[in-house]
Amino acid sequence: MSDDHTPVPDEEPEERPDPDLDPASTPPRGDLGPMLEEPPGPINWNLLTADDAEEEWLELNQWVNWLRTTYGLPASVIPPMWHRHPELHWELSALHTHWLCAYDPQQNGSAPIGWHRDFADARQRLRDWVAACGTRLDRDRPTRQTVWPGEDDADPIEDTPITDRDEDFVAFVIADVERRRQIEEDFYATLDPDTGEIT
């Protein structure tokens, strides 16, 4: 048939650069960390190894800095010491994972609007967490814990001035990684090297 569109044998197909080999063909992404091969799953901070925790803390911190500056968020939504308040870092971690999934190249084009809708809900929850825990722009204190009958009285809670937030974050992550590494070492010390069973 005359409508046959089969290419002529001596025609060469148009070559396209491999984005993995040609950095110029990859659009810039800013400072948001590594491009993932697939959307991530939820992060359970209770189960992270020392090395995984260090990586996740650094990536989350980088993203939270991007989030607060991009959207002009006040300290009543994201305070400087969010990392010292589990209720804040769990919420922000979930929001980060949701953002990564919503902006994955394979995601549906309407996913970002869904993320922004959920972001509005998350901002209200973050305000509630910040108000309840009492952390501020210039000072911080541990989140108050309700003592149940039969439990020991809680230690007194005092405000601590914030003088260098980034320095505190680094110290916090180092302490968290060391704590996790000690737990791992203590566990492996209980294993029989020959059988792999707990002694």
Automatic annotation (TrEMBL):
Biased-composition ranges, Acidic residues, are: 9-21
Q: Where is this region: Disordered?
A: 1-42, 141-161
Look up the domain of life of the source: Bacteria
Q: Which protein, by its recorded name, is this?
A: DUF4913 domain-containing protein
Annotated source species: Brooklawnia propionicigenes
